[in-house]
Each structure stands twice: as structure tokens, then as C-alpha cells.
Amino acid sequence: MAGDAGSRKLSVEERIGLDAYDFGRNDFIKVDTQACRTCEPKPCLYVCPAKVYKLDEKGDIVYHPEDCMELGACVIVCRHIGKGAITWSYPEGGKGIEYRQG
Ligand code: SF4
Prior knowledge:
Blueprint: H1 2-7, H2 12-18, E1 20-22, E2 29-31, H3 33-36, H4 44-47, E3 53-55, E4 61-63, H5 73-77, E5 86-88, E6 96-98
Antiparallel strand pairs: 1-6, 2-5, 3-4
The protein binds iron/sulfur cluster.
């Protein structure tokens, strides 16, 4: 019921779904997926609440910058950041995510 949904606590996924994204370009995250092949724990899969990083059917990293919430957590946990596995910067001015639920 709409009244119940309006008063209940939203899940993280529901809150993220309410955010708005406006990307002029989405290459503000670049991942060298070749470097990822030797990263055994792949912490980026677990630290990103927007699930930008996923495994494909072959077990290789694929990523979706268009879902990025600009936390930068993936850069902090990346096991091969020193090898340039992730190149990350904020989207160009005025672009990126607009938070609507905190
Ligand atoms: S943590 Fe870094 S090197 Fe490891 S899979 Fe993720 S992006 Fe690749």
C-alpha cells in the first residue's frame, strides 16, 4: 500500500535507486582489467554499494561507471592501484550523482 511504503524505512538499494545521475562522459573511471586478473581477493566487488564492479561469465572484472556514487572506496581498497589498475577522478564540473535520500 502506498501509505505503508511512504512510512517504511527504505533499503540501501531503494535509496540508491532514487538518486539521479548526469554524466557528460563516463570515462572518469578507467580500469585496467588485465591487471585485475592477478588480483585474487578483488575487494572492489564488495566495497562498492552501487556495485560498479562485477564479474562476467568468465570471471573477469567488468565495471559500470554510470552507476558510480563517487565514494572513491574502490581506489582505497584496490590491490593493484600502484600498477594503475584504477584511474579515478570526479566527473567533470556539475556532472555526476545527485543524492536524494542522504
Ligand atoms: S581491487 Fe583493483 S586490481 Fe583488484 S579486481 Fe578490483 S580494480 Fe582490479
